[in-house]
Amino acid sequence: MDSTTPEALAGMRETASPATLPADTLKADILWHVLYSLGRDNERPDRQTVFRALALALRDRLVEKWIASQRAIYAKSSKRVYYLSLEFLPGPFLRQNLIALGLEKEARDALTELGFTLDDVAGEEWEPGLGNGGLGRLASCYLDSMAALRLPAYGYGIRYAFGIFHQLIRDGQQVERADNWLRGGQHWEFERTHYMHPVRFYGSVREWVDEQGRLRHTLEGGSTVMAMACDMFIPGYRNDYVLNMRLWAAKSSREFEFSFFNTGDYIGAVEKKIRDENISMVLYPNDEAPEGKELRLKQQFFLVSATMQDIVRRFRKKGVAWDQFPRKNVIHLNETHPAVAIPELMRLLVDEELLPWEEAWYICVRTFAYTNHTVLPEALEVWPEELFRKVLPRHLQIIYEINRRFLHDVRRQFPHDPGLLARVSLIHEGEQRFVRMSHLAIVGSFSVNGVSAHHSNIIKESIFNEFYKIFPERFNNKTNGITPRRWLRQCNPTLAWLITEHIGTEWLTDLEQLKKLEPYAESAGFQKAWMEVRLRNKQKLAEYIHAKNGITILPESLYDVHVKRFHEYKRQLLNILHVITLYNRIRRDPDAGIVPRTFIFGGKAAPGYYMAKHIIQLINAVGYTINTDPRVGDMLKVVFLQNYCVTLAERIMPATDLSEQISTAGMEASGTGNMKFALNGAITIGTHDGANIEMLEHVGDENLFLFGLLSHEVEDLRRQGYNPRTFYETDSELREVLDMISGGYFSPGDPHMFRDIVESLLNHGDRYMVLADFRSYAYRQQDAARAYLDQPGWARRSMLNTARMGFFSSDRSMGEYARDIWGVEGV
Ligand code: Z57
């Protein structure tokens, strides 16, 4: 019988009960969805249609396991973890879900029968870019690990209609294009069109006294928007456990009012509806330099208010008293972005549940935990008091009351430090007043953690030192991690296979098992196999670069890769200064190059960040000059890959030799790209910053190239008065490079084009100490090049990097959070 007829397919569905769908029906399920869910002819479905149908077939399997997981959590009456984040960067789901469900082979077979390859079909997926960079990606690695560990957890965020912009490079400059990711249709999610919560903004607070003589606060007026739940599923690795990431989308409440469209002003009514739905329209593309816009504050409260309603609804089902709330719930704040959850819980408890303030506060401070991800002063979130009062008048009052009581306690604890109160106050007082969100988060949480050992120490010793003195027991470290399922198994299947052949599969859920590779580090045979896999990965990336940029690169060259958001503290500028240095050496002496190198850059700049965009432009200009200079030939190539995102990272990580992690010491809280590269066998060149320091401790200093000032040296130098010009004057190679840039060598049509970059270094203080670290960086780069000449030595270092990355699994991080902060166990 022809199995593609609708009758045959429908018959097959009926005979397979949903709870026991055998994997060999995957092909039938795909064809079933092509016809019944997508409304297409299933005789010759196209690639995009097959992708969508496969996604739907997998969603069927995910939802079954999710329901079962939810029942298990409910039955055990577990304490629940709520992970609140304004950003998630899950990356493409297809391969990840296939691996977790153990359906990769079945999918390949089914697709082959349909005339496709998994690579082709996976290429149809458009990743949800609902985050900017490290912070959002970390949240997604953590969900993967929470699912692997069977934690009773939920991710909560916003379903932006437009994610992080799509970056194009046009004439060497960044151009932003809207990321209309929903256009492709929502094959992975369930839109709960009947599951909504009202969220209220603006209005004014009315104070009144009730019959029992209690002072009450009621919000009057204002406007209401509905939050619609959209669920996406995160499967645990082969454990039948599935978590959900619930993303809220804004829907106008007005369309639920019968009279709304009947007012005579039909078009005006539609306009109002669209304005309401704007709240979840677009992700703010600013990483570590928040834009203090009203819409952004509304987004934060939108997430918080809808999520708190969900949490309270689930808690109420238990039928226990409010004082049990912290035993049953922990709410984790990913950065301060969702910190208004603290006054929101206070409002619910005090204004609506009529609990006394002290009791409510006792519940609050036992419920919240906060992760800080940055010490950059410009990244610490503050909101103008006026704006806060306008959007969230009752919450501002509550923050003032929290502050009054907090300062009262501080005054009693430290009576002899009058300046202290102003420094720790939740309100910054000056010409204008600001609400300090980090102070709110610290005062309202039982746990405050940094994201690497180094960063957590900086928090305690400098930026939050005074809070550390007030609440020493709250501060702790949880070093970041990455999921080995995506960042090795999925993105580097050939290396994963080589590893598994030698040490089995346990490493997938216990990354410390990679230690078992260490004995192979000296084996010539294994080294050869290792380097062959790496070379094939590098060939594939070379093909991609050729297709995208039209540049031919040597797969045997040293791939020196710097991919991450563009920010001055990450010092892509230092890297390109070194590239120009090598160029000059080759120009002077064609035999000067030690080893052929390919420099690969990628990353987005915030659209309003002038200097970051300018540095992107400089890199592209330098690349053009070098790549077209016949004297250089194969010795040096510079590539800028546009639109760095999770999908592109998955191509790059397995093909990298040298990983650039060169932030100014003290400024990168952790970094997670550093871990992804090393897990795939790249060697790091980096500063004493963030998690680099812990990576050094694990891999050993022969296997990692560290350079540059230490963070206390950066501070000392700054205090003593740092003069970047002395480096310019005393280092002739550096001087030549800077003179070329400011003299228009890379911008012959417009010699002044890059002058302000050099100005920022020489005449505006070089805030990120690029010049101070230049020479030590150049030396270390030379060490790296020499090391690369010794290929067996490089192979050994590469393998030892992989073998010693076990600690940096996000399973380890999540295990620590679960045990030390949340007090939860696997279901
Ligand atoms: C962001 O991506 C990070 C910190 C922030 O405060 C914001 Br806003 C965005 C990054 C840090 O820069 C990285 O060092 C860190 O690895 C990452 O967050 C995850 O913790």
From TrEMBL:
The keyword Transit peptide is assigned to this record: no
InterPro entries, per database record: Glycg_phsphrylas (IPR011833), Glyco_trans_35 (IPR000811), Pyridoxal_P_attach_site (IPR035090)
An annotated Gene Ontology molecular function: pyridoxal phosphate binding
UniProt cross-references to Pfam families, sorted A to Z: Phosphorylase
Cofactor: pyridoxal 5'-phosphate
Gene3D superfamilies the record matches: Glycogen Phosphorylase B (3.40.50.2000)
Membrane-spanning intervals of the chain: none
Domain of life: Bacteria
Keywords of this entry: Carbohydrate metabolism, Glycogen metabolism, Glycosyltransferase, Phosphoprotein, Pyridoxal phosphate, Transferase
Catalytic activity field: [(1->4)-alpha-D-glucosyl](n) + phosphate = [(1->4)-alpha-D-glucosyl](n-1) + alpha-D-glucose 1-phosphate
GO CC field: cytoplasm
EC number: 2.4.1.1
Function noted in UniProt: Allosteric enzyme that catalyzes the rate-limiting step in glycogen catabolism, the phosphorolytic cleavage of glycogen to produce glucose-1-phosphate, and plays a central role in maintaining cellular and organismal glucose homeostasis. Phosphorylase is an important allosteric enzyme in carbohydrate metabolism. Enzymes from different sources differ in their regulatory mechanisms and in their natural substrates. However, all known phosphorylases share catalytic and structural properties.
Stated name of the protein: Alpha-1,4 glucan phosphorylase
Organism encoding this protein: Desulfovibrio psychrotolerans
